[in-house]
Amino acid sequence: MRTPTDGLQIAYNTTYIQSNMAIRITNGPAWVSADVCNATVEQGESREVIFTFDATGLEEGTYEANAVILCNDPDEHQVVLPIQMTVDEDGVGGIVALPYETTLHANYPNPFNPATTLRFNLAQQEQVSLEVYNLLGQRVAVLVNETMDAGAYQVTWNTSGMSNIASGMYYCRMQAGGYHATRKMMLIK
Which of residues 1 and 27 earns the better pLDDT score? Predict the structure, then answer.
């Protein structure tokens, strides 16, 4: 007969735990789960992880968690992916997977006429500056200049009606906190 006194002894922050003996105990939020909790991915391969979100029984509001990916990359042993779910008054969950790094993507289309779309990600709330410069280094457009929350964004630069914009190479420059990036864009009229 089993009694409720069964247990498991765990050594914490000691040299006792060795290779093939480690135990990780986590307690994630009940509203999100992953279909894979432990997997090995070989170099050059990928593995899909499906997250399931459940707003059942949750009150209206925003719920946040982190998906932590541990790896043996010498430069980045851990990647934290912020996850956010918003539950509205109907109890329906809206889910947003927040980017884990700030990035300015290449514009599309490129070359373009008369408009192109620029996409960027913010890993955290930052003051963002997104500006367009000509080959002489003169600023010809300010697309964004504001504090923005973490998330994925896109901005369209439409040159129709701008008489001072000619065919040629332009540079889009983004600054967000300590992040700086520049992308080339080609306008063909």
Answer: 27
pLDDT in tens, 22-41: 555 556 788 888 887 777 77
Distances (CA, A) of 125 to 18, 100, 102, 148, 152: 40, 12, 10, 6, 12
User: Which are the contacts of 78, defined by CB distance < 8 A and separation ≥ 6?
Assistant: 68, 69, 70, 71
What pLDDT does 128 receive? 97
Judge whether residue 12 has pLDDT over 80.
Answer: no
Average pLDDT of 122-139? 94
pTM to 2 decimals?
0.53
Pairing outcome for strands 78-87 and 93-97: antiparallel
Residue 106 CA to residue 77 CA, distance in Å, equals 28
DSSP string, 84-150: EEEE-TTS-EEEEE--SS-EEPPPBSSSBSSEEEEEEEESS-EEEEEEEE-TTS-EEEEEEEEEE-S
Rounded to whole angstroms, the Cα distance separating 109 from 117 reads 7
Please state, in angstroms and rounded to a whole number, the distance separating the CA atoms of residues 54 and 30.
8
